[in-house]
Specification:
The protein is mostly helical. It has 1 helix and no strands. The radius of gyration is 39 Å and the shape is rod-shaped.
Length: about 100
């Protein structure tokens, strides 16, 4: 009877150690999963930030192009007026 009791006690301790080891591994995995989820959330936030910055950059590029086209149009008109006023016709070296 004492042998059986000692055997059961040893087996119980072994099972408890196995359970503790399993719980430890599960907690380690949960910690890793939590860290990965935090990184994914960080990447999503960064992605949203980059998309916003990309849209701002595109808008600025579009505005710059429009402003350049307007300015070039203004320069052509201005040169045409100056040439016409000065010479009564377009300047020979002018591209207007």
């Amino acid at each position: 009877m004492d042998n059986e009791m000692a055997s059961l006690t040893a087996e119980t301790k072994s099972i408890r150690l196995d359970i503790a080891g399993f719980q430890s591994r599960v907690m380690g995995q949960e910690h890793r999963v939590t860290m990965v989820e935090a990184q994914v959330a960080s990447f999503r936030d960064r992605d949203q930030e980059l998309l916003y910055l990309r849209s701002k950059l595109t808008d600025l590029e579009d505005r710059s192009r429009r402003d350049n086209v307007r300015f070039l149009g203004f320069l052509k008109q201005w040169r045409a007026r100056i040439c016409t006023r000065s010479y009564g016709r377009c300047c020979p070296n002018s591209r207007a």
